[in-house]
Amino acid sequence: MEAVPPLSDLSRIDVTTDFSITVEQASALFFDAGVPRSPRTVMRCCAREHLDCRKIDTERNEKYLVSQESLDRRINELLHVTASTARHDAPDRDTSRSDKQIQQLEGRLMELETENMDLKITNPAKDQVIQFAREERASFLKKLTLATRIIGQLETRIRLALGSSVQTDAATEAEELNEELGYPHDETSNSASPVVE
Question: Is residue 36 domain-resident?
Fold first, then answer.
């Protein structure tokens, strides 16, 4: 999606304008010119149409591309405002922060923005994994319960088919097998079934 300037500003955008500067590059150019602006601030400038830009779709989100001409114009405007303010407020301005400190703060801000984006991506993925594990466990328990019922029905049919003398031997073998598998024996029934939680 392309950011469309107000009708009053359409005349200043040339059809051949090259929109090739990313938000991060624009931020670096602002910094180099002595008027530091974070990538987030550059994005706000694009959204408020302080810069001529185009919004394009990427695989993960949308991003702005800025024209060099509008970037130069904005830098000159900011330098002019900064110079005017410095002349009027020279005694009151706090110039204690060096360029290195500003660069460190800008770098830390970018790190925090990256961490925030990572969290936005990671949390939904984690929730999906947990939901999938819950569904898989419920499906497994359902299948286990069904298998236990079928085994019980088969045991009953075998006992009926083989008669009472063989039934006792089969019940004994079933008990031994259940003990080996760790299933508890139910005194009220000749069949043992696994404990389903």
Answer: yes
Q: How far apart are CA 29 and CA 69, in angstroms?
A: 12
Amino acid, res. 144: L
**Which of helix, strand or coil describes residue 61?**
coil
Beta carbons within 8 Å of 184's beta carbon, 6+ residues apart? 178, 192, 195
* This prediction's pTM: 0.38
Tell me, yes or no, whether 165 lies in a domain: no
Domain range spanning residue 107? 16-83+103-125
Residue 85 CB partners (closer than 8 Å, separation 6+): 93
**25 domain residue, yes or no:** yes
Measured distance CA(149)–CA(167) in Å, rounded: 19
Distance CA 140, CA 134 (A): 10
The tokens for 126 are 């984690």
Structure confidence by residue, pLDDT tens digits, 106-165: 888 888 888 888 888 888 888 888 999 999 999 999 999 999 999 988 988 888 888 755
User: Rounded distance, CA 31 to CA 105, Å?
Assistant: 12
Mention every residue, 6+ apart, whose C-beta is less than 8 A from residue 191.
151, 152, 155, 156, 174
Separation between Cα atoms, residue 184 and residue 187, nearest integer Å: 9
Cα distances (angstroms) measured from residue 101 to each of 24, 93, 98, 107: 19, 17, 5, 10
